[in-house]
Amino acid sequence: MTEPEMNTTPTNSMQDAAQRGIDLCRAGNWKAGMEILGKIAEADRQGTELSGLFYSYLGYGIARYERRGKEGLALCQHAIKVQFYEPENYVLLARVYLLRRRRGKAIDALQRALKLNSRHPEAIKLAKEIGFRRRPVLPFLSRNNPLNIALGKMRHSISQSRAHGPKSSKI
User: Fold this and answer.
1) N or C: which end of the chain has fewer CB within 10 A?
2) Residue boundaries of the structural domains of the chain
3) Confidence of residue 13 (pLDDT cuts 50, 70, 90)
């Protein structure tokens, strides 16, 4: 999309272009996606209502590829204000926190994403990558306490059986 096109297109076209940029980023083509998102951000002087995902992807891209973490973080936080019900916004916020070496904040963001959608594939994947752990069953005891270990294993097996359905036994 050329500069003149960006200035004369109605809001729907801008939102369509934003979606194309997001789709390119999701597909791993961050350079082309960021180019589109950047042009939209420059052209959007009147404050068009863009989705929270637009701000999230722009923020993560700026933080990761342009090494402007503070600006990227601000955009991701704005995305959550705009679209707080979208788990992907929290996943991208968590990624920005990880880039800024703030693991605790990243875990908090992932927990919010998983609260919104406990089966969100990107949130689950990132949680496994960073070693996401649940709180101990009995938080007043240490994580290494034998009672916490046993109860944690029971909780894990119950949650696994619920996720995968009942096991059928063959006789």
Assistant:
1) C
2) 3-135, 136-164
3) confident
